Amino acid sequence: MTDLYQQMIVDHARRPRNFGPLDGANRTAEGVNPLCGDELKVHLRLSDAIEAATFEGAGCAVCVASASMMTLAVTGLRAADAARLMQCVRELVAGGDGKNLGELESLKGVAQYPARRKCALLAWRALEAALAGELAKVSTEL
Ligand code: ZN
User: Fold this and answer.
1) N- to C-terminal Cα distance for the chain?
2) For residue 91, what pLDDT is reported?
3) Domain boundaries defined on the chain
4) CATH number at 2-133
5) Distance 48 CA to ligand 1 centre (A)
6) What is the pLDDT of residue 141?
7) Following DSSP, what letter does each residue of the chain receive, concatenated?
8) Band of the pLDDT at 51, cuts 50, 70, 90?
9) Residues, beta carbon < 5 Å, ion ligand 1
């Protein structure tokens, strides 16, 4: 992992953006990653597009940083575009090159640590569930 990437993850983990409940949220999903102990909730205000996204919970630095970056990246996107972005992030943490992903590219280093991929993807799995309107908890172990 390059220093720049590491710094970005540390920065988001220390000062997560869009952290907390969301006024007027109409979609919420919870994600757990029992292997690491990460637990978070993603809240969305969804109309034609994602008007706002926040998250709450606790997790390791990679999990919190990924969630923080996710809320920034998906705000303003239509559900289909958010799903496409999610696919790009999946490929990135699986070792793909993930070009033009902005800050999310800092998750690239996670590809070297398979156990950490679930941490990086947890918020995205919860986002996917929230967009699908599922209220159930999602787990990385299912
Ligand atoms: Zn974790």
Assistant:
1) 29
2) 94
3) 2-133
4) 3.90.1010.10
5) 32
6) 73
7) --HHHHHHHHHHHHS-TTBS--TT--EEEEEEETTTTEEEEEEEEESSSEEEEEEEEE--HHHHHHHHHHHHHHTT--HHHHHHHHHHHHHHHTT---TT-GGGGGGGGGGG-HHHHHHHHHHHHHHHHHHTT--SEEETT-
8) very high
9) 36, 38, 60, 63, 119
CB 89 within 8 A of CB 124: yes
Cα(93) to centroid(ligand 1), Å:
14
Helical packing angle, 114-131 and 79-93, nearest 10°: 170
Structure-token pair, residue 3: 């220093």
Question: Is 23 buried (19+), middle (13-18) or exposed (0-12) by CB count in 10 A?
Answer: exposed
User: Highest-confidence range of 33-42, 90-99, 128-137, by mean pLDDT?
Assistant: 33-42
Q: Dump pLDDT digits (tens) for 97-123.
A: 877 899 999 999 898 888 899 999 999
